[in-house]
TrEMBL record:
Family matches, as Pfam families: Terpene_synth, Terpene_synth_C
Required cofactor names: Mg(2+); Mn(2+)
Every Terpene synthase N-terminal domain range: 48-226
Domain (Terpene synthase metal-binding): residue spans on this chain: 284-521
Database matches in SUPFAM superfamilies: Terpenoid cyclases/Protein prenyltransferases (SSF48239), Terpenoid synthases (SSF48576)
Record flagged with keyword Magnesium: yes
Alphabetized UniProt keyword annotations: Magnesium, Metal-binding
GO molecular function: magnesium ion binding; terpene synthase activity
Metal-binding among keywords: yes
GO-annotated biological processes: diterpenoid biosynthetic process
Protein name per its UniProtKB record: Terpene synthase
Length: 580
């Protein structure tokens, strides 16, 4: 039976329940820290972004916003003319590359697709193969990134008879860097690109360590790429970095830089409004007060949504997904930290049956979670039904049911002292990362969803979802498993591999990194090869992996959000770019 409680109604229902039950038993809030319950505590750090701070964030002046919108319109016209005017292949590709890295290509999707389609159809691959390494690599990367099929054989002229990269290529730093970035678009089984990755990595490192090269700008670009290739980077953070680089890198295209700056600030102003809207919802729930064992991470959850779909038209998705992210974290902490196994069994059954009456048997803290979850999911489904006339309720519910069942599997492992094999762990762990919920929402809550699309998704999760979720899980485990073990959580991929293979942690971490490279190749292939899914959804799958890498690159940027994650929030959500 569909549930359609409004958020205030959801809270009122819970408060009514409290009043009824308070005559017969003490409130659970009084017992949250009670030692006789045997509750665990993870001692998570409190939020650094309180609601009063969020609502104090200043938006741009209304007159400035109008002026900026007019400037963007003018600059877009200039850029559009440039796209069609550029004649040499190199110039066309460099322009499109700049637009994409500057974060403004979404304004020119049709123009860019027209140009790349024409290039893909009209260009003779044999002629391209005889071009310089920089151009060939740029051609390959841009076409693959935008969904066009280009074989890795395009690089075979750069390898000798022993299938080694020709040594003279190492002197072409621009070509090396371009090939390095292209190599990270490899699909499974593409050996030429794998050899190219090894070769370029080695020589780019040598370049950085050499005293014979004094180009500081080029060294910064190389260092940035070696830290993380473009295909693995969170788009919006890279855009913020690239805007600073582009200002002095190509003064002949100052209009593009100005467009990127003004557009970035306009979008950031939109983010501030969305964040305030999400904060009002989170403040009404007051989970962070009433469930003090959970991670209060509203702003970090919103940042994840920006990393998944940054464009203005995806505002509805970002709001809905921020709510879902907060609920995923809350329920994850219920399973990992606070709930007894018996409570978790009852909670999982209530979610699996999707039955509000079953919440009567649950303790109050779990009733809060169930009511908020039911209300949020049904509200999202109702919005889609109103806008598109489509029933996405079964898909949204399925994601949460699968997530909670997977959480319960881990809880049972923990309480039984069972250490799964790495394969067992990942068969369950790709779900417990919670990204199946994010991607189900991304699929259903967007303007392009159709009835045919829903049929394709309703039979199960496609491979592209599983690959994306697995990558998110592996990135999470590399950064968080040690802390989670200290608080008594179930063993993660690293410990499972160590236990069953009898190897050191260093060896196990190396194995996980190898798996990350493997799953990126699988994800690249799925994103390129499956025409059944809209480009937006395929990008969301790629971006989930990118944002996971970003959050966990320097440790647990989610559980301990006061270092790199704080800087990322400041750059993307708070501080506008100065145009002078």
């Amino acid at each position: 039976m569909p549930l359609s409680l409004g958020l205030p109604s959801c809270i009122q229902v819970f408060q009514t329940k409290l009043r009824v039950h308070s005559h017969n038993r003490p409130l659970i809030y009084a017992n949250l820290q009670s030692p006789q319950l045997g509750r665990r505590s993870a001692n998570f750090r409190p939020t650094i972004w309180h609601d009063y701070f969020i609502h104090s964030i200043k938006n741009g002046d209304e007159l400035d916003q109008i002026g900026n919108a007019q400037r963007v319109c003018k600059l877009k016209n200039e850029a559009s003319q440039m796209i069609y005017k550029e004649e040499p292949l190199r110039d066309k590709l460099e322009l499109i590359d700049a637009l994409q890295q500057l974060g403004v290509a979404y304004h020119f999707e049709e123009e860019i697709n027209d140009v790349l389609t024409d290039i893909h159809v009209s260009q003779d691959l044999s002629a391209i193969m005889n071009s310089d390494l920089y151009l060939v690599s740029l051609f390959f990367r841009l076409l693959r990134t935008n969904g066009f099929t280009v074989p890795e054989d395009i690089f075979k002229n750069y390898f000798d008879d022993k299938e080694h990269c020709k040594s003279k290529l190492s002197l072409d730093i621009h070509g090396m860097l371009s090939l390095y970035e292209a190599s990270y678009l490899a699909k499974e089984g593409e050996e030429i690109l794998e050899m190219a990755r090894h070769f370029t990595t080695k020589h780019l490192i040598n370049y950085l360590e050499s005293s014979n090269f004094n180009d500081s700008r080029m060294k910064e670009r190389v260092a940035n790429a070696l830290e993380l290739p473009l295909n693995w980077r969170m788009e919006r953070l890279h855009t913020r970095w690239f805007i600073d680089q582009y200002k002095t890198a190509d003064p002949t295209r100052s209009a593009l830089w100005e467009l990127a700056v003004v557009d970035f600030n306009i979008i950031q102003d939109l983010y501030k409004k969305e964040l305030k809207q999400a904060s009002r919802w989170w403040t009404e729930l007051r989970f962070y007060e009433k469930l003090p064992f959970i991670r209060d991470r509203l702003v970090e959850n919103y940042l994840i949504c920006v990393g998944t779909a940054f464009q203005p038209k995806h505002a509805s998705y970002r709001i809905a997904e921020t709510k879902a992210n907060c609920l995923v974290t809350t329920i994850d902490d219920v399973y990992d930290v606070y709930g007894s196994l018996n409570e978790l069994e009852l909670f999982t059954d209530a979610i699996e049956q999707w039955d509000i009456t079953l919440t009567e048997a649950l303790p109050e803290y779990m009733q809060m979670c169930c009511l908020a979850l039911f209300d949020t999911v049904e509200s999202d489904a109702h919005d889609v039904l109103e806008k598109k006339g489509l029933n996405v309720t079964p898909i949204l519910r399925r994601a949460w049911k699968d997530l909670c069942k997977a959480y319960l599997v881990e809880a049972r492992w923990y309480h039984n002292g069972y250490v799964p094999t790495l394969e067992e762990y990942l068969d369950n762990g790709w779900v417990t990362i919670g990204a199946n919920v994010f991607l189900s929402d991304a699929y259903c809550i967007n303007d392009d969803v159709t009835a045919t699309n829903l049929e394709q998704f309703s039979t199960g999760y496609p491979d592209i979802v599983r690959y994306s979720c697995t990558l998110a899980r592996l990135y999470n485990d590399l950064a968080t498993s040690s802390d989670e073990l200290k608080r008594g959580d179930t063993k993660k991929s690293i410990q499972c591999y160590m236990h069953h293979e009898n190897v050191t942690e260093s060896v196990a971490r190396g194995e996980i990194m190898d798996m990350i490279r493997k799953y990126w190749k699988l994800l690249n292939g799925a994103a390129l090869g499956n025409s059944a899914f809209h480009k937006y959804f395929k990008n969301a799958c790629l971006n989930i992996s990118r944002i996971a890498q970003c959050i966990y690159q320097h440790g647990d940027g989610y559980g301990k959000p006061d270092s790199e994650t704080k800087d990322q929030v400041t750059l993307l959500l708070l501080d506008p770019i100065k145009s002078i």
